[in-house]
Design a protein that fits this description.
Helix content: 25-40%
Largest sheet: 4 strands, mixed
Radius of gyration: 15 Å
Structural class: alpha+beta
Order of helices and strands: EEEHEHH
Pfam families: FAD_binding_3
GO molecular function: FAD binding
Protein name: FAD-binding domain-containing protein
Number of strands: 4
Organism: Paraburkholderia ultramafica
InterPro entries: FAD-bd, FAD/NAD-bd_sf
Number of domains: 2
Bound molecules: flavin-adenine dinucleotide
Strand content: 15-25%
Distance between the termini: 38 Å
Length: about 100
């Protein structure tokens, strides 16, 4: 397995053992893993997020062009709502 770990916002290959302890270890840096990692980190916990894909852009193979309105409270808790809009995300009135 080709695991990548993100520490302090930077991805690094796990070619060698990491001599560091963590409060939380999360396997899989998809939406769920990244969300959990950030929420734990916002609580002040030291988090290791391990992903089998080495390329941090691997997730972009998925569409993720549309965010359900039900995700908005979580995006606010993550502190990402404003960043998404600053990056060009648009609100709409579509009700699915
Ligand atoms: C083509 C496509 C388009 C989509 N478009 C949208 C959209 O526009 N809007 C939307 O809201 N949703 C969209 N979805 C759905 C959305 O992508 C999923 O609901 C979401 O990705 C699920 O997140 P997750 O974290 O649960 O799982 P995943 O995204 O599957 O993340 C799991 C992660 O864990 C990693 N992993 C698994 N096993 C291991 C292991 N043993 N060791 C290390 N890492 C591991 C995987 O590599 C992966 O990165 C789309 C899905 C697809 C397939």
């Amino acid at each position: 397995m080709n695991n990548t770990m993100v520490c302090n916002g930077e991805a690094s290959q796990l070619d060698a053992p990491i001599n560091e302890s963590f409060d939380v270890l999360i396997i899989g840096a998809g939406l769920a893993g990244c969300t959990a990692a950030r929420l734990f980190a916002l609580q002040g916990l030291h988090v290791a997020l391990v992903e089998r894909h080495a390329d941090v852009a691997a997730f972009k193979q998925l569409c993720t062009h549309y965010i359900q309105a039900s995700a908005t409270p979580t995006l606010r808790r993550l502190g990402l709502d404003r960043l998404i809009e600053d990056a060009g995300g648009l609100r709409n009135g579509v009700d699915i």
